[in-house]
Amino acid sequence: MQRRLVLVRHGQSEWNLKNLFTGWKDPDLTEKGVEEAIEAGRRLKAEGLKFDVAFTSKLQRAQRTSQLILAELGQRNLQVIEDEALNERDYGELTGLNKDDARKTWGDKKVLMWRRSYDVPPPGGESLRDTVARALPYFVREILPQVLNGKTTLVTAHGNSLRALIMTLERLTPEELLQRELFTGAPIIYEMRADSTIESWRDLAGAPADAAE
């Protein structure tokens, strides 16, 4: 039995382009983001993949990326399950701010701590640990059983909510997780064993991801 899981970070969004903290705000994809999503679909098509089930967040940049991928695979009618557990990390008071402006307001050291620490949240927002606590139970309860039952599963979400899943899949420490870069529109394909450990994985990365979410 094949147990295949594919994770895709959404294509570039309008706020990625503007270098703004996005979080739970809901900008659409840029033209480049649309191209990245279509290219992700082409790469998956070249791998001969078809999906049995798909999951995404409640935010349109991830939803549209999923739609474009599935359209490229000829699977426009596949049901896509949406849940806010897969939403991006909530950046609280940083949301909507340019990173440079945030540094001017709070200082370089504090903004870097909020962005790169595992357990320190920005004001009114979530730390990466908080995002893991939200996304991981949903993954274990709803997504992983589909994979282990032999369904080829697509998850289209966000940099930090995907890191929450990757932390468990790749057995990363919090320090290793913070160094795990994800590329926009680049599928990561996991082949899994029956005990939910990874047999192998490949990152079909293209251009470097913008760090702003």
From TrEMBL:
Where exactly is the site Transition state stabilizer?
A: H158
InterPro entries recorded: His_Pase_superF_clade-1, His_PPase_superfam, PG/BPGM_mutase_AS, Phosphogly_mut1
Q: What class of enzyme is it?
A: isomerase
Residue sites binding substrate per the record = 9-16, 22-23, 61, 88-91, 99, 115-116, 159-160
Tell me the keywords, alphabetical order.
Gluconeogenesis, Glycolysis, Isomerase
Tell me its EC number(s), please: 5.4.2.11
Q: Name one GO molecular function term.
A: phosphoglycerate mutase activity
Name the Pfam families on file: His_Phos_1
Task: Name its GO BP terms in alphabetical order.
Answer: gluconeogenesis; glycolytic process
Question: What pathway does this protein act in?
Answer: Carbohydrate degradation; glycolysis; pyruvate from D-glyceraldehyde 3-phosphate: step 3/5
Please indicate which superkingdom the organism of origin belongs to.
Bacteria
**What reactions does this protein catalyze?**
(2R)-2-phosphoglycerate = (2R)-3-phosphoglycerate
Q: Which CDD domains match?
A: HP_PGM_like
**How does it associate, per the subunit comment?**
Homodimer.
Instruction: Report the PANTHER family cross-referenced here.
Output: PHOSPHOGLYCERATE MUTASE (PTHR11931)
Q: What does this protein do?
A: Catalyzes the interconversion of 2-phosphoglycerate and 3-phosphoglycerate.
What is the similarity comment for this entry?
Belongs to the phosphoglycerate mutase family. BPG-dependent PGAM subfamily.
Q: What is this protein called?
A: 2,3-bisphosphoglycerate-dependent phosphoglycerate mutase
Q: Which gene encodes it?
A: gpmA
